[in-house]
Structures are given as C-alpha cells and as structure tokens.
Amino acid sequence: MTLTGQTNGSVPNLLGSSLQQRWQKYLTVLRRCKRKCSEKSVHDLRVASRRLLATLDLIMTVMPSEAITGVTRDLKQRLNACGPLRDVQVQLLKVNGMRDVYPELNLFWTLLMLREQHALAAIHRMLLRVRTREMGQKIAACRKELLPMSDNLSMQTVALSALTGAAAGGFCRAVSRLQAIDTDVIESIHRLRVAFKKFRYTIEALQPVFPFVTGKLLKDMNEYQHRMGHIQDNVVLETALLQYARKRGKTAKTELSRVRKGLLLERKQLTETFLRSSNELSTFWEDSPQRPLSVPAV
C-alpha cells in the first residue's frame, strides 16, 4: 500500500494534520454561525461537524482515547440538534417549487417559514453557549499522542491496516444494506443511505492517506448519496403533510390528497432511478488497497 506523497507521509502525521485542519474549519464555521445563524451557515456547520467526526472516528481506530470520546459526544449532540432545521429547510425548498401546481400548499409553506425561524433561533441560542477551549485542548492532546507513533514503523504498519479495515468495514456494511433493500419497504433504502453516508465520510477522511481517494471518487459518492437523499426528503415531506392534515382535520386531509398522490408518484420515479444505478456502490472500493469486493446485483 502506498501513501500519498507528502512531506511527512507517516499515517499518524497525516491523521494529525487532517485533525488540525478539520478542527480549524469547524471553529471558523462555528464563529460564523454565532455571528449570523442562517441556512447556509448551519449547513456548513453540519458538514464541518461530520468531517471532524469522521477524522476522530478514524483516530479512535488506531488510538482509543477518552478525550476523543468526550469531543465526539458533544459534536454529535449539536449535530443532532441541527437535524430538525435541515428537514424544515428541505421541505421549504421543495414546497416552494410546488406551490404553483398545488396552491393548497400555501398555508403549509407559511407554517414551515415560521418553523424555520424558530429552529434557527433555538440553534443560535445553543451555539452561543458553546465553549471550545476545552475541546481544543483535547484535540491538541490527541495530536500530541499521535506523534510517538510516527517514529515507529511497526505502529505505522498496524495503523495503516486498521484504517484500511475501518474503511472496508464501512463498505461491507453498505453492501449488506444494499442487499437487504426491499422495494416495498422504503425505509430499507434509508438504512442504506445512513450506512453509505458514514462510509463516504470515512473515505473522505482517508483522502490524505490513500491515493485512490480522488476528487472524482468523492464527487461520484456524493451524487450516489444524493439520489437516496431525494427519496428520503420525499418521505419526510409526506410525513410532515400527514401530521399537518391530522391537526387541521378532515377538510385539510381531503385538500392535500392531490399533493400526496403527486408525492407518491415522484417517490416511485426516484426509487426506480436509484435502483437502476444502485450497483455503482462497488465502484467506490474497486481501486482500494484491498482486492475489490463484488456486489451482487439488486
């Protein structure tokens, strides 16, 4: 296995450098969010959080640390707190594009606008309470613990094998979810999406270590994930509409029946489109340091 050509190409140094870069990026985006909590700034914070988490998970693979566990827990809590806002914003974008065809969505769209503002305000209050000094100290301690491994060739070999195994494990979990897809159970595609997203962020975090992780590969993985994401967004919107209709009574349910039919038709088309390309999953591991694993056709 060949590492990428860098000044100091040891696995620990590459991981430590990646950790520092992703920590600094997280801090930059967090400060921006504290100044102005907007759709874009929260989105950027979620992405920066996921990338930092992926790097921390890889470091835990080669060097378990209680300090990292604490940082990871805090990051995940904040990331989860941003989830409802993401759902509302996706629904807003989708509903806004549907209102010309379905004017009965206008009131629901107004409600979503209010929900977005409330969610942004809640996230902003949460982020203003975030203090990063202790997290930064733990990140620095983690990088310091990695340094001795850089001078130990045996540890470097073991670390490289562990990272390869972590990526291979993520790929196998995604393959397992792909094989388990049931076209009558839309949740089965969501389960693949969750497993694939974790695999994708793991692969992205390994870019400094493995030369097979190219910009094109990451772009293709992102597009693959988006195809599943469109299906889940459709499901989330329909669920939100059903909840909205129940609260407003039978009249609203009747008014929105046309919208639901349109969403179900769209979901069928999105699902068929994804399934036709679902076996592209195998291409995301075929150039890895390990022998390619075959993916049975769905």
Outline of the structure:
By secondary structure, the protein is mainly alpha-helical.
List the defining traits of the structure above.
298 residues; mainly alpha; CHAD domain; 10 helices; flat; disordered N terminus; disordered C terminus
The largest sheet is: none
CA-based shape: flat
* Overall helicity: over 70%
Enumerate how many helices there are, as a single number.
10
* CATH class wording: Mainly Alpha
Write a structural description:
The relative contact order is 0.12. The chain is flat, with a radius of gyration of 22 Å. The chain has helices at residues 11-35, 39-62, 66-98, 106-128, 133-146, 153-179, 187-205, 215-248, 250-255, 257-277. The protein has a single domain, classed as Alpha solenoid (CHAD domain). It is mostly helical and 298 residues long. The chain has ten helices and no strands. Helix content is 76%, strand content 0%.
Architecture blueprint of SSEs:
Elements: H1 11-35, H2 39-62, H3 66-98, H4 106-128, H5 133-146, H6 153-179, H7 187-205, H8 215-248, H9 250-255, H10 257-277
